[in-house]
Amino acid sequence: MNHYPLNKDPFKETFGSLENLVDKISDVLQCPVTIEDANHRLLAYSSHEGQSDKARVDTIIARRVPEKVINSLWRAGIIPKLNQSNDPVRISEINDIGLGDRVATAIVSKNGILGYIWVLEIDKRLSEEQFSLLKQAAQTAKNQLLQVQVRKKKKQEGHQELFWQILTGHLKSHEEIKEKIEQFGLPPSLPASVIIFQFKDEITPKIESHISYMVTTTQQLRITFFVISRHELILLGSPLQGSEDKSATVNFIEDFISQMGKRFKVNNIQGACGSSYDTYEKVEKSYHEAITVLNIKNQFPQEVGDTYSYQQLGIYRYLEVLLKKKQEDGYENATLKKLGEYDGINKTQLLETLEIYLNNDSNVNDAAKELHIHTNTLIYRLKRIVEIADIDLKNPNQKMTLYLDIKLNKLI
Amino acid sequence: MNHYPLNKDPFKETFGSLENLVDKISDVLQCPVTIEDANHRLLAYSSHEGQSDKARVDTIIARRVPEKVINSLWRAGIIPKLNQSNDPVRISEINDIGLGDRVATAIVSKNGILGYIWVLEIDKRLSEEQFSLLKQAAQTAKNQLLQVQVRKKKKQEGHQELFWQILTGHLKSHEEIKEKIEQFGLPPSLPASVIIFQFKDEITPKIESHISYMVTTTQQLRITFFVISRHELILLGSPLQGSEDKSATVNFIEDFISQMGKRFKVNNIQGACGSSYDTYEKVEKSYHEAITVLNIKNQFPQEVGDTYSYQQLGIYRYLEVLLKKKQEDGYENATLKKLGEYDGINKTQLLETLEIYLNNDSNVNDAAKELHIHTNTLIYRLKRIVEIADIDLKNPNQKMTLYLDIKLNKLI
DNA sequence: AGTGCGTTTGTAGAATTACACAAACGCACT
DNA sequence: AGTGCGTTTGTGTAATTCTACAAACGCACT
């Protein structure tokens, strides 16, 4: 086993590539070593002949750390610990994801995390000295990564401009867009849908880096593009071929929102997506659909708060059209008008009662609970409503009309 | 008591007016006498000082026979009997409408009924001779009425042309239309709505006379205009001030259809009406609404078969707009598609099951009955549907979306 | 304070609906 | 003919909803 003196830095020489560096580290520490970027994408791995654990193999195969592993590392508090610590951190094995004992360190520049170095402890634990060596290795890796960073940033700016052109319909034809995307060396990924996240507060550079992390680490969707404007994050995402589950996009949205909260304490994010289309020219449409979803979610937080996709909106997709038609017709629901008048005179809440009853799929128990009243009170009120408004609550057409008209009235 | 010899016709002289004639008849028969036209509108009544029954008084006050009385006479089979008989007919009292014993005869020309003469039998019954005299009186009345008929016909043709102009939007401004209507001496009657009846078979002159009868005898609505084209009868009707009930128009439609069937054996009539508006310029709109109702009723006979007004259409009013939006969006309900495919492969009827379940307001019993299956079968199918289509049948938004999309699919 | 009206809550039995399970059926496939 | 799958029907029980009725409350009006 080689021994390097502490006072001499074995990583002082220049390494042509990260591969050389990782081999050197592996050589010095006598362990399998992996370097990944800030988003857990594999940058280099040592060709050490010894054993590897499952997590490492999977990472190398996929050229990125599996999302399951990332999630697990977050849950165990390891990633935050790495990000905050200046020194290497020892991580005990996590069996269910095939992660053996290891030591890791973040590669940090003054602008934040650039990546991580992972060292597997197959047969023996690293010594204090070796911890120190690893820290020096991270210093050297930093310089290499900074160069990559700049190149990537420039590239991304080009992507963003292209994405805006697609979103705004500046580029119309599918062929044209496809060509441009290929020019950028981006993988073709269709069908695709546009996803928008709306942040309550302005997106700071810090949040931006969190977003970038989330977007690149997710493996639920392939994110071809993403751009950030003041309060919004807009993505173009495609479901992976593996998951034929159509709800991949919706799952991604839910996870993104929940993890931004849990991991980075960034809350109050609204998410929405348009439909999935198989040609690029329809991306613009998907974008507008996503905007519609956001608008409707803002207008009807209770009704469609847990809904993210344009498809899921159901009847709410039609509200705008219906409102327009209603105004053209000069239509007013006589029933609701009567109830409203009655409410005004008698200080009752028949309208609200009816709405919540309908919201709850005509279930008296659920509706009564939501209204905080006795079931019989609700039944009594419903009888009153039927009398006053002269309606039939067993007639689906009437019920739907009432439901829609109630919601439409809220729009004005 | 005067006695006129049988062989001498006391009505041979010329009478300047119907009033003179009616007084003469009353004088000859020594009874109160009333003459009305074919539509039971009062033409003349004797000023005989004696008693009268309630029906006669009401008729004179309203200048027409009350609808209740007409209905009662039809129910008792008296009107048809009068229309078919060449001789006067004796009618026994009908207490609940205040109709005392009387004798009546139709006034008939070769083109049909022109009117009726009613003779009250207050103290004594008419003799055979007097029957004969009454028959002669009817002959004389006929000539007078024929002249009136011609004048009325001409007037009506003028009305019809005006009505068409209003319906087709040829006359746009309210003021202009109002003026024209006043020129015709027609009563101003607003709010008004357009009513259309669609006849399965072509409207023959005979049916036309029945229509005319129905339209002029009804007292549920004031019918300002009516025109007849090949298969259609179009009316402009206003609710009477007395009945503030908004469903007067709908009631009229229902009664019209049922009575055309019962009284004249004219069946297969579809009826519909537009909304009520208070300016004449909106009559055109009401007309188009009525047409829409008819179209939708033809497309959804089951769903809105018992619905007549544009308002009652509820959600079906929106179908056209929704279809348009749907086509613009290129939207297809994935759920329904899946179910349809499943039905195709497994020869099941999940789609139909779902539709009828939703039609029946999610009531398993009613739906099972309509489907002629066991309740548990329905429950089983619903579970399948939920599985296959991945939907939540407790979510009103989803349910409404499914309902609407099912109906929309039927439109194509 | 009393009266009347509309409203709310409670109780209890009847009617419906939900759920689990077993049996049998039809049909395609071998 | 047997097997498996999806479907249909029947049974029994638990849960829920409907219904009617009684009691009490809040509030305006007198």
TrEMBL record, chains A, B:
Q: Give the family, as the similarity comment puts it.
A: Belongs to the CdaR family.
Name this protein carries in UniProt: PucR family transcriptional regulator
- Taxonomically, the superkingdom here is Bacteria
Domain named CdaR GGDEF-like is located at: 170-296
Instruction: Please list which residues make up the signal peptide.
Output: none
- Organism placement in taxonomy: Bacteria, Bacillati, Bacillota, Bacilli, Bacillales
- UniProt xrefs under InterPro entries: CdaR-like_regulators, CdaR_GGDEF, GAF-like_dom_sf, PucR_C-HTH_dom, PucR_C-HTH_sf
Domain PucR C-terminal helix-turn-helix, by residue range, is: 350-407
